[in-house]
Amino acid sequence: MLLVVSSAALEQTGHSLYAGQEEREIKSLSTEEIESYLSGDGMGLAKAAELNHYPGPKHVLDWAEKLRLAEKQLARTKEIYQAMHQETVALGKLIVEKERMLNGLFAGRKIDRRQLESLVFEIAALQGKLRATHLTAHLEMRGVLLPEQIVKYDALRGYESNQRHDSSHHP
Predict the structure, then answer these.
(1) DSSP H helices in the chain
(2) What is the pLDDT of residues 52-71, one digit of tens each?
(3) Is this model's pTM higher than 0.85 or not?
């Protein structure tokens, strides 16, 4: 309801929700989004895993002591995180680069339908690969942790405690 009222108020004043964004370097991305892409941040891309008891390697590393990871678990978690991080940073750079190209073509009034579709489809494919990379890391972590560690992880992250865990995905 508040959103509808806010949107209606903006429309009455003639201002767009995009007002102020025309000053951005890449119009379609905020500074925070660019930084997140370039640093390999999760940006909520792995919620389907995270909120269904598939821990993320970065957070497992953050909570390693409280989760009482064995040396082997810690080493494997670091491997999963490093591989994920390397891949997501590379993909993030490509996404920002493609968004910059798209923005430049529009800004220079040099874009045609073929270029538009090509770049948009490339960006979408990269975003899909980025999400799959984050989700895959969560999937791999499920096989590293014991069921009780996953329950502890969820509790540390503030998730509900009435969880169903399938032990077939654990070592």
Answers:
(1) 2-13, 31-39, 47-50, 57-62, 64-67, 71-107, 113-142, 147-157
(2) 999 999 999 999 999 999 99
(3) no
